[in-house]
Write a structure and sequence with these properties.
The protein is of the alpha/beta class. The chain contains 13 helices and eleven strands. The chain folds into two domains: 178 residues, D-Maltodextrin-Binding Protein, domain 2; 91 residues, D-Maltodextrin-Binding Protein, domain 2 (3-Layer(aba) Sandwich).
């Protein structure tokens, strides 16, 4: 009899434990994510497949300012944005921003129709057309020129990457600085162009810090309320980046299907120069902090007036 009672009690305990566990619902929150066309958005392409990832509502945009405004308005929970914009948002939103990871390293290149440019110093006395004024590309270029003691460079900034790409493709501009994937797309149209300078390599010659251009951020309030969702996203995003970096036909088509790039061949050629990564934890904190110090020294406004505090980093 005692044995029977013990068995019944044990069974009831197991049932009770199962019921209690079953009552804890999984967090099925739909995550609203914004990403930009180009390298900062390429890593997220696999997650735009709603069949495989139904809980991610991803918006792909070509306008960083529009994404920034929407993030401020609370319309997105996570966003892939330029590194300096993350700092500006952190300061503007009084710390309600968390950096989940670095997702893009340097993607800037100087293209030349000719063979005069072999180092940063060769830019002295030249007219260089560029894009990205008052943003990371301008600050990176200024830092490299100053660090190398290069003077007399006339930098002509154009508003759009596409405008400079068109001018270089048709041969109207012989020397220009632009990011991938514009580099690849432009070189396809004008076979006389070559990559004269890789600014990531030039950066590494004079700095111990990583050249960072894109990051993944989230609203701190969302992170606190949905910790398990954030952890799942980071796992999914890490796998997505690994897949994209294979530059397989499947990965390249994903980028096209997501509306991030117009053609798979361009994606395949551009991926090796896009430096798509997912750096998290202490490595992220160390690299981003150093990058923010460089940007702050270049122009305090570039990071929103001050270097973000340590609480920025997830």
């Amino acid at each position: 009899m005692k044995k029977t009672v013990s068995i019944i009690l044990a069974a009831l305990m197991i049932v009770a434990a199962f019921v209690l566990t079953g009552c804890k619902k999984a967090d099925d929150t739909t995550v609203r994510i914004a990403a930009l066309k180009g390298p900062t958005g390429m890593g997220i392409a696999p997650l735009t497949n709603k069949e495989n990832y139904p809980k991610y509502d991803i918006t792909i945009s070509s306008d960083p300012s529009a994404v920034t405004a929407s993030f401020i308005a609370g319309e997105f929970d996570i966003a892939a944005l330029p590194v300096n914009v993350a700092a500006v948002l952190y300061n503007k939103l009084e710390g309600d921003v968390v950096m989940l990871g670095i997702n893009t390293l340097g993607v800037l290149y100087v293209l030349e129709d000719g063979n005069e440019i072999g180092s940063i110093k060769d830019l002295a006395g030249k007219t260089l057309y560029a894009t990205g004024q008052s943003s990371t590309p301008e600050y990176v270029l200024n830092y490299l020129l100053e660090a190398n003691g290069v003077e007399g460079v006339n930098v002509e900034y154009l508003a759009e990457h596409s405008e400079l790409a068109t001018l270089m493709a048709e041969g109207s501009v012989k020397l220009g600085m632009m990011p991938e994937p514009n580099v690849t797309a432009t070189m396809v149209k004008n076979k006389d162009l070559r990559v004269a300078l890789d600014l990531t390599e030039e950066w590494s010659k004079i700095s111990e810090t990583k050249l960072i251009q894109g990051v993944i951020i989230a609203r701190r309030s969302f992170v606190k309320e949905h910790e398990s969702v954030i952890k799942n996203f980071m796992t999914d995003y890490g796998k997505a980046v690994e897949l994209i970096n294979t530059a397989s036909d499947e990965a390249c088509q994903m980028i096209v299907d997501a509306g991030i790039l117009p053609a798979a061949p361009i994606a395949k050629a551009a991926i090796p120069r896009c430096n798509i990564v997912f750096i998290t934890g202490n490595e992220m904190k160390k690299a981003a902090t150093a990058m923010y110090e460089v940007l702050f020294d270049s122009d305090p406004k570039s990071v929103g007036g001050k270097v973000p505090g340590e609480d920025l980093y997830y």
